[in-house]
Amino acid sequence: MALARVNRLWLDKVVDKSKQVQWIYDVIFSPNGSYILAAAGNLILVYDTAEGVLLDMLKGHRDTVYCLAYESSGKIYPQMSLTD
Fold first, then answer.
1. Cα(44)–Cα(68) distance, rounded to whole angstroms?
2. Which end of the chain has a smaller Cβ tally under 10 Å, C or N?
């Protein structure tokens, strides 16, 4: 039986759409597995899991976002930052 070769790469920071470097504090998959959300600075970055492309940047926090979660309904749960 042949084993698939897998290369894994983890970066603890990303570049957002405005070319700013953001540190990643939390990462979660959407309930259906089609999106990855990353808490990066005061943004939530939404990635497509199939293509690996950045789809959206959710803004609105005044401070760093440290935690992400989904509700059981599949909606994104309110995020946690130090000032929110």
1. 9
2. N
Distance of CA 56 to the CA centre of its chain: 10
Alpha-carbon distance 34 to 39, whole Å? 17
Alpha carbon of 14 to those of 2, 33, 79: distances in Å?
34, 21, 19
Among 8, 43, 9, which Cα is nearest to 23's? 43
Instruction: Tokens 């509700």: give the residue.
Output: 71
Which pLDDT value is given to residue 72?
A: 73
pLDDT digits (tens, 9 = 90+) for 12-67: 677 777 788 878 888 899 888 899 888 888 888 888 888 888 898 888 778 888 88
